[in-house]
């Protein structure tokens, strides 16, 4: 809900973040455009290319990718594709019913089957409305059973939310963050997501509409509806 220069300037002037990732839904063009502006500027923070990919089972965040990851595929081949590109696969807003999220069965199936290239690199923890729904359950299961690295992320759709949740790691660069995730040495820090009053009801409704239309806008209504049907099947 912000133009790219506005977003990058906000990170520069209103946060203390060392690294940001741009992860538009089912589209890598926003990340490319943001990186182009970032490269021409004199920003103090580092930049990661990314995409939030819609799989049949739910969303997965692909970081450190330079090629679009196909959407509306099953989870396993999506994870394999991300890792073949040298990317990392992060589970956003796990077990949330507010948006298309991986459920407990989806996560545990991947952990149980242990196919080559089919794995998660981290779980996202956030104070965003979508992530907040299943946060306590996710945290308990991960600490007791899954033992996946945890990263904080604002999952920001409004500039005011950027940096409200974040990952602490040893270093300040995108490369050092990647190493920290792979080594399981990130610590999530969750702050307070901006209030409804601060963002404004109209902007929230606009964002919800844009979010609902993101996948059909990129992939077409036919494939999008088909993916919902496949998700609903036992």
Classify the oligomer. Answer: single chain
CATH architecture name? Alpha-Beta Barrel
Fill in the CATH topology.
TIM Barrel
Strand content: 15-25%
Number of domains: 1
Which helices and strands occur, and which strands form pairs?
Layout: H1 4-14, E1 19-25, H2 29-40, E2 46-54, E3 59-63, H3 75-84, E4 88-91, H4 104-113, E5 122-125, H5 129-132, H6 135-146, E6 150-152, E7 165-168, H7 174-182, E8 187-190, H8 196-199, H9 201-219, H10 221-232
Parallel strand pairs: 1-2, 4-5, 5-6
Antiparallel strand pairs: 2-3, 3-4, 7-8
Structural summary, described in words:
The chain has about 230 residues and is an alpha/beta fold. The chain has one domain (about 5-230): Metal-dependent hydrolases (TIM Barrel, Alpha-Beta Barrel). Helices cover about 45% and strands about 15% of the residues. It is built from 10 helices and 8 strands. It has helices at about 5-15, 30-40, 75-85, 105-115, 130, 135-145, 175-180, 195-200, 200-220, 220-230; strands at about 20-25, 45-55, 60-65, 90, 120-125, 150, 165-170, 185-190. The strands form 2 sheets. Strands 1-2-3-4-5-6 form a 6-stranded mixed β-sheet. A two-stranded antiparallel ribbon has the order 7-8. Helix 2 (about 30-40) links the parallel strand 1 (about 20-25) and strand 2 (about 45-55). Helix 9 (about 200-220) packs across helix 10. The longest helix is centred in the C-terminal third of the chain and has 19 residues, at about 200-220. The radius of gyration is 17 Å and the shape is globular. The termini are far apart.
């Amino acid at each position: 809900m912000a133009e790219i220069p506005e977003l990058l300037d906000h990170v520069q002037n209103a946060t203390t973040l060392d690294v940001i990732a741009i992860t538009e839904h089912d589209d890598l063009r926003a990340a490319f455009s943001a990186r182009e502006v970032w490269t021409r500027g004199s920003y103090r923070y580092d930049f990661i290319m990314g995409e939030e990919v819609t799989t049949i089972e739910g969303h997965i965040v692909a970081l450190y990718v330079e090629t679009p990851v196909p959407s509306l595929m099953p989870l396993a081949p999506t994870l394999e594709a991300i890792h073949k590109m040298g990317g990392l696969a992060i589970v956003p807003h796990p077990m949330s019913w507010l948006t298309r999220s991986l459920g407990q069965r989806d996560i545990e199936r991947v952990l149980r089957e242990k196919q080559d290239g089919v794995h998660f690199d981290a779980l996202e923890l956030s104070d965003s409305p979508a992530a907040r729904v299943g946060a306590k359950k996710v945290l308990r299961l991960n600490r007791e059973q899954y033992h996946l690295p945890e990263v904080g992320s604002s999952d920001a759709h409004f500039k005011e939310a950027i940096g409200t949740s974040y990952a602490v790691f040893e270093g300040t660069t995108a490369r050092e963050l990647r190493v920290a995730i792979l080594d399981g040495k990130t610590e999530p820090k969750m702050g307070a997501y901006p209030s409804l009053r601060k963002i404004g009801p109209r902007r929230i409704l606009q964002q919800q509409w844009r979010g609902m239309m993101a996948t059909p806008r990129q992939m077409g209504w036919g494939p999008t509806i088909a993916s919902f049907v496949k998700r609903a099947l036992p």
